[in-house]
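Chapter summary example.
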Amino acid sequence: GNRDDAREMLTEVRSACSELGAQPTMDRADRILTRLAPRARNDAFGLTQRELEVTRLLARGMSDREIAGELHISHRTVMRHVSHILHKLNVDTRTAAAATAVREHLIEPDSNRP
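The structure predicted for these 114 residues follows.
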């Protein structure tokens, strides 16, 4: 339950994995460390958890209809979420929203994309 202790342990795990050349485990530790990072920047934009989910899927290049199917919500609800995301991030396009979210560490870059 203590984020500081968890970050400290993960940093030690990452160090040990580095010496062993255990890249997949190091990558996993990095992802967890990112999630454990202080969330002040996220709060500054005011995105809800659902808006962050939609932003992650936007960053994967999914259409509104694909996002609706993935999240089991209506197409209109996705459109409303996207509108709120664009407004909160102060951008005009879905691509700009995804880029801003990655740059500001609101979401992780999709490692499966080229």
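To summarize the output: Residues 90 and 97 are 8 Å apart (CA to CA).
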